[in-house]
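Please go through the sequence line and token line underneath and see whether the fold suits the sequence. See right below:
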Amino acid sequence: MKKKSNIHQLVVHLCLIVFCAMCLLPLVLTISISLTDGSVIQTYGYQLIPKKFSWEAYKFIWMDPTSLFTGYKNSILIVVIGTLGNLLVTSMVAYSLARRDFKWRGAISFYIFVTMIFSGGIVPLYILIVQYLEWKNMLISLIVPVFASPFQIFMLRVFFQEIPPPLIESAKIDGASDFRTYWSIVVPLSKPALATVALMMTLHYWNETFNAILFIDRSSLYPIQLILKNITSYIEFVRNGGIDPSGNPIDASDVPTDAIMYAMMVLTSLPVMFLFGFLQKYFVKGMTIGAVKG
């Protein structure tokens, strides 16, 4: 029996190793292509191990380091402020809806659910942000519009409902206010769920591009994703026979277009991957608990 058990574990471990390798293969291929010479890509295509290593793609992207550093600074500022503020608002709303003694929780839950189905649209949002709130060319216009996502509210509400009611009642007996109960008892017990939602928010804010195109015109306020999108547009311009300011056609062979595209993927993915490594334990646990409860 012990021998069969060891064989079974070996097979399971081998299957998991193969699965992990398959998951890592696209990332390794992306990094490999970004470090491959452009002429080699045109001749031999994409390869897992480059025939000729080259840093030309990264050098091209870093031709204007000030712009990139500004983009990273803006994106990090948006992610930190947006995630913390969003997490606070979302968790407070979810905790209120999870309380069985809250009279209006059914009506408010229905109202929030309706917003998941029907949206006001882009035009009303633009009018609200630009004309009424006057947040044009302000980073707050990329943070506030996505506050209190309905999906994340309901996800946290499910988790908060698992907290034993006697624990909340004992805090009331000891004289704790609702906010003190939320901050001192509910939040510490909900770290897995909060970390899961925080990672979702971080991914959303980090990949923010659409609202930046709508509300940001100043290059000094561009997030990193919008800067890289502009580089992508330039690459497409070169591929389609672009002309430089002097009127001469740009030689596409001088620009490692494919390698640049993959280099931008690496630059935008690595920060989030490092963050996921720190939050992986809480993220997996939070997703599992929510799935079992649902």
Observations:
- Confidence is low (pLDDT under 50) at residues 290-294.
- Residues 53 and 134 are 49 Å apart (CA to CA).
- The chain has two domains: 25-54, 62-293.
- Residues 62-293 form a domain with the MetI-like fold fold (CATH 1.10.3720.10).
